[in-house]
Design goal:
The protein has 436 residues and is of the alpha+beta class. It has helices at residues 3-17, 19-41, 51-66, 80-91, 93-106, 118-145, 157-186, 195-217, 220-270, 280-297, 311-317, 320-337, 361-376, 404-420, and strands spanning 68-71, 75-78, 301-308, 343-346, 351-357, 391-397, 426-428. It folds into two domains: 3-260, no CATH class; 280-431, Reverse transcriptase/Diguanylate cyclase domain (Alpha-Beta Plaits). 66% of the residues lie in helices and 8% in strands.
């Protein structure tokens, strides 16, 4: 078995497993069955339409489908309603249905030239053919059953309501069918509504009524003139719609970039750019909030001021870039080893502030001790050969009447004690008094 044949078989199996392909195939087969039943059971017409009409509506249907644009959310929007409505009002719903289905089946083949995968083209062809054939057949039959004239020679009082119901039912049928397909393909409900797309399709339906009247009543020269004028109008509207979509896409892109910039500015206002930790401004605001909670609800917490030992030597003996790498790794260690409820901030050059909500001083000391041991045991040789990185920490716990400045000052005093007593240690406020 050749590689190409295996690839084709795998592609075929994958196609059958796709939800949107299975749905499209079922819809297409349903459309074929409904059309076959109608063709076999309909009565012979008294005045059969000239064969040239069938070819004209097929080719014009392809043209009106081509006069469309891709909407980023609701799919492909075109003027195909012109040919569909006109063919219903000239040929009747059954012939109009198979012509609309055939045009919708053939048009997606043009996407192959744009590099669209075969399975996507086949899915679109089957779905569009099935949906358009069923829509034209069902809505056209409803129009005839409620007294709508076909062929339509003129608009009188008796034909207004059937024509309105024809346009409304086709719009509703098409919109519902497309939403079902999108929900199956994307596995999410489509909630977007495009007023411009609704206007395009509604105006196309009105154009189809006008074309039907002209074809049924006027001379060939008038018909050709009308088709030319309507075709030029569709070309102009299609270009306008495509330009509009490009402008909307540009606006969306600019809006997205502005949102990203805004989020980045918000992040820079609260985070340190080097380490990604919260910065001093955020940490001070955070402490003020925790202190207010303590005053109102007696929710205690502890903090720790952490300072790297002899960090200047890293910058002097190696480089500032090496120092930045060390800071980055230390920040990652602190973030990973602290609890999710804790707050970790870079408070100065090589100084960090840790906040432990709902934690007494003893527990905070134990948590800091675990961090100290983890940092001391890390292999720093890959970044700074021969270097050992340690830290000293001072721990303090909130007490009634303490301000942010007083709490930080107490932690800073304990940090000073840790530094003076040999570094690489954690000193809580309960051990105060060992150094004077």
């Amino acid at each position: 078995m050749t590689t190409q044949r295996i690839s084709l078989e795998v592609t075929g199996i994958a196609a059958l497993l796709r939800r949107d392909f299975a749905y499209s195939l079922a819809l297409f087969l349903l459309g074929v069955a409904a059309l076959t039943a109608c063709l076999l059971t309909r009565e012979p017409t008294l005045a059969p339409s000239p064969p040239g009409y069938f070819l004209f509506f097929l080719l014009y249907g392809l043209f009106t489908i081509a006069m469309g644009y891709e909407h980023p959310r609701i799919g492909y929007v075109s003027f195909d309603r012109v040919a569909q409505v006109a063919s219903i009002l000239v040929l009747g719903p059954v012939d109009a249905a198979w012509i609309a289905g055939l045009a919708s089946l053939l048009f997606p083949v043009t996407r192959l030239a744009r590099g669209v995968p075969l399975i996507s083209v086949l899915t679109a062809a089957l779905h569009n053919a099935g949906l358009m054939a069923l829509m034209v057949l069902a809505c056209g039959t409803l129009y005839v059953r409620i007294g709508g004239p076909a062929p339509l020679g003129w608009i009188d009082a008796a034909s207004v309501l059937p024509l309105v119901l024809l346009l409304f039912s086709m719009q509703a049928f098409n919109d519902f069918g497309m939403r079902v397909m999108i929900s199956i393909r994307d596995r999410s409900l489509l909630k977007d509504v495009s007023f411009f797309a609704f206007l395009v399709e509604s105006s196309a339906g009105l154009g189809g009524i006008l074309m039907a009247i002209v074809i049924n009543r006027m001379e060939p020269q008038t018909i050709v003139l009308l088709i030319a004028v309507m075709s030029l109008g569709m070309l102009a509207l299609t270009q306008f719609a495509r330009l509009r979509m490009q402008l909307e896409a540009l606006v969306d892109e600019r809006t997205r970039k502005l949102s990203e910039k805004s989020r980045e500015l918000q992040r820079l206002a609260t985070h340190d750019p080097l380490t990604g930790l919260f910065n001093r401004r955020f940490a001070d605001d955070y402490l003020d909030e925790r202190i207010e909670e303590f005053k109102r609800y007696q929710r205690g917490f502890s903090i720790a001021l952490v300072d790297l030992d002899h960090f200047k030597r890293i910058n002097d003996d190696f480089s500032h870039d090496t120092g930045d790498q060390v800071l980055h790794l230390i920040s990652a260690l602190l973030s990973d080893r602290c609890r999710e409820t804790d707050m970790v901030a870079r408070y100065g050059g090589e100084e960090f502030l840790l906040c432990f909500p709902g934690t007494d001083v003893a527990t905070a000391r134990d948590l800091c001790e675990e961090l100290r041991v983890s940092m001391e045991s890390m292999d720093w040789g890959m970044i700074a050969p021969g270097a050992v990185v340690t830290f000293s920490a001072g721990v303090a716990s909130i007490r009634p009447g303490m301000t942010r400045r007083a709490l930080l000052s107490e932690a800073d005093v304990r940090l000073y004690e840790a530094k003076f007593s040999g570094r690489n240690r954690v000193v809580p406020h309960s051990l105060a008094g060992r150094y004077r």
